[in-house]
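Journal club prep, shared notes

We agreed each person brings one worked example of a sequence with its structure written out as tokens. Mine is Phosphoserine phosphatase RsbP. I'm keeping it raw so we can talk through how to read the token line rather than staring at a rendered picture. Sequence first:
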Amino acid sequence: MVAPIKPPNEIERIADLRAARILDTPRELRYDQIVKLACTIADTSMSYIALIDSDRQWLKAKCGLTFNQTGREESFCGHTILRDEPLIIQDATKDPRFQNNPLVTGEPYIRFYAGFPLAGPNGYNIGTLCIADTKPKSLNTQQQQVLRELAKLTEHELQMVDIISTQHELIETKRQLELTQKQLKQELDDAANYIKSLIPHPQTTAPIQFDWRYISSSILGGDLIGYHEVAPCKTAFYLLDVCGHGVSSSLLASTVFSTIRNQTLPHTDFTQPKRVLAALNKTFQMHRHQNKFFTIWYGVYNSAKHELTYAAGGHHPASLFNPDKSLTPLGEPNFMIGALPDEQFDPIQETVTLKPQSEILLFSDGAFEIRKNINGPFLGLEEFNKICLSNRSNNTCNLDAIIDTLKSYQGIPTFKDDLTLLKIFIS
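Then the structure, token by token:
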């Protein structure tokens, strides 16, 4: 066995690993789905995401393995991080570096290995996306290419930076997925679950509570919702709707979502909706993103002042249900994100004071652009709000009852467009 050497930039590499703040964190669904996807693409029994620490190899996610870490000296991945290209070993028993490795001669009896290096926030190789098997094998060109793209997606999750280049990687992944669509249906199902896993869990604690429903019209949709604290006593919540459906819309939606969630727009105050929308419009111009645009409603609630500041980009108004049972639309007409050059885009920002027991409902256009009995008149925004008012009790909307009413109106149980509802209750 030949133990991997440490690279000349080991000090910087370890600092980059620490900066990623990923070591010894709990399992996460999105990483588990990535390794399952890798196993399916390569038809292997094992896959894992490894982070190479100073003296150990720690697994962030794994499939087909029982251990969580090994020593660095016997790790295959310690060799992989020394290079920028994948390390592919068709038969470890015939490679002098690995033939006496305890991971080869004992559990898990690795014969085949392929590792794809993963760079950290500052560009140093901090880990790998790997597949392995107990029998020798090889990867065809298409499998290698798709795994390269999957490694780039994994790297994006670790870094959450460099928006434009990440989008290019996602577009290339879309192309690869289209080429293998018939063979990779299960992988697309996993991808849909991953997109949905990005949405935060419902929140039932005071002073602001969240609940939502998300129904995709296809395997992969273009709607996404989110909410998170952007400053002390200030919580942002938003709904974005990318035009179209399928892989490309879903990839753009997840990229925009990650950009907002991780606040990676440069020189942007995320407590100011107008500035957020302007920065998104500058970054996600249609001509750079396959002529895809999106609409968004973005608000920030200040729980200390009981104020909601909001702005919309091409999105219809949200609905504010007041404690006196009246309804107030929130949002002014504006262009969708990406359609206008940044110097011409000027979103309108407004602030409203919210009383206790107020509730805001964000919803995609799939909630009201439905036809009665499939071919009849459109429901429309006004009638949708009436449905919401008729399905309220104890100062809150019954989301399931609203969806059931919409299904009854159109006469079929499925929707032609994505349907997303996000309610925010001020307790």
